[in-house]
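Hi V.,

You were right to ask for the full record rather than a summary. Here it is.
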Amino acid sequence: MAAGTHNAALEAIHRRELNELKNLKVHREIRVAAALDYCAENHIDAPAWLIAEAAVLVRDLLKREKAQERGRKGNSITRYRRDQWDVERWDAVEEIRRMKKRIRADVQLRRKLGFTSENDKDWQYRQRQLAWFGHGTFECASRLLAGRDARVGPEAIKASYRRCKERAGEGPLPDRYYVFDEDFLLKLGIPRLSERKPGTKFLHLFDLT
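Predicted structure:
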């Protein structure tokens, strides 16, 4: 038998077996798993219908997954959301440090140029900002997250920040902090960043409580 004929016969067999599974009306989860296993065992590409059904099945399984252990660990989605909250807290700390550095540099420049009049509204504003930073970096980061699910007290902010730093080492943030496509996360019940509680980053710093 010629190689082309042999390959065509194999393709016909694979197509028949997969179509048989595709047309089953019961045991949805098992038939999808069986079809995926068939493709893996025979080293063939999964057809489009199987990929689409497998994606839905895995998402459903993730949403229905029960926590394997008691306590804070939770299921896969819960663990992912907690990791993302750690990243939000880490980012809030870094943002506070960036703002503090920028404002201090601005104050030093104004002093050097003599723009320090108590009647100068910009100078007064900078002084109020510096006073607000006196609460401490982690306290300020906590206030910066007001209105967001990631908001916690300064000690928890500090713990999250340390976790991110320790897990990253000297490199970038590790894979556990990878941000998946927002449309995909929405299917798991995780809202897009633009749809989450906005926090208070755009208020005057000294108005944050």
